[in-house]
Amino acid sequence: MYEIVYKETLSESNKLMVVIAPEVARKAKPGQFVIVRIDEQGERIPLTIADYDRDAGTVTLVFQEVGKSTMHMGTLTVGEGFRDLVGPLGHPTEIDELGTVVCIGGGVAIAAIYPIARGFKAAGNQVLSIIGARNRELLVWTERMEAISDELTVVTDDGSYGRRALVTEPLRELLEARAGEIAEVHAVGPAPMMKACVQTAQPFDIPVIVSLNTVMVDGTGMCGGCRVEIGGETRFVCVDGPSFDGHLVDWDMLMARQAFYREEEQYAVAHWQKECRLLAAKGEV
Length: 285
Fold this sequence. Notes:
CATH superfamily of the largest domain: Nucleotide-binding domain of ferredoxin-NADP reductase (FNR) module
Radius of gyration: 19 Å
Strand order of the largest sheet: 6-1-2-5-4-3-7
Mean pLDDT: 89
Number of strands: 16
CATH architecture of the largest domain: 3-Layer(aba) Sandwich
Distance between the termini: 22 Å
Shape: globular
CATH class of the largest domain: Alpha Beta
CATH topology of the largest domain: Rossmann fold
Low-confidence stretches: none
Number of domains: 2
Order of helices and strands: EEHEEEHEEEHEHEEHEHEEEHEHH
Helix content: 25-40%
Strand content: 25-35%
Number of helices: 9
């Protein structure tokens, strides 16, 4: 068992867990992910490594409860753990001394952009960060991002915190104001957000590196569930990614594949919630 040694509720739906996984912590690099499974019958869930402590032998996972499996994960407590935790998987983000980079995180994926932004800062770059969410409740790690950023812009869709805007608005302003200075943009978040960031940067001829989140089963490239089209060629997110040139991603195909199992996911959530209500009525939870 991979034991949970710390748990924090970041919001009603966002949870943080620190898990003992010394072999993973020893090799983890920014941009990589793990696949966890709660029990023998559990679904395999890919999660970006939000942080790691090599000395303590722990990895930090931040996730949003959106489906049955992540809702189940959210009920785990300190002292409990995961049946399986495999990683680090995927290629690390390529971090070099480029000069000035923009790092963008949306919602719970702010925790996923954090190690990337920190890596660029440690490499000697000027890091301009933009983070956003639908509302204040869904923002995570604002203080952490501020600590490793030369400039931080916070936006919310409803204006409940920071500036009322989408992340693409401050991105466009930065690209206009610092033309020729910004070397690269890195964006992690929902597919529509990343696609919008790519479209915003296209007129400026700026590279945009995105981290793709797809349906994934084995994490070794064998099942084909995570296949995407990059520049007209088939790639597998688990072994070829998760980072890709956003200008080459077939976004329509990606989002269509993300929706393949929506009905099954909705059924699983409804069944899980019904089971929880029955157990609660019996006093077993």
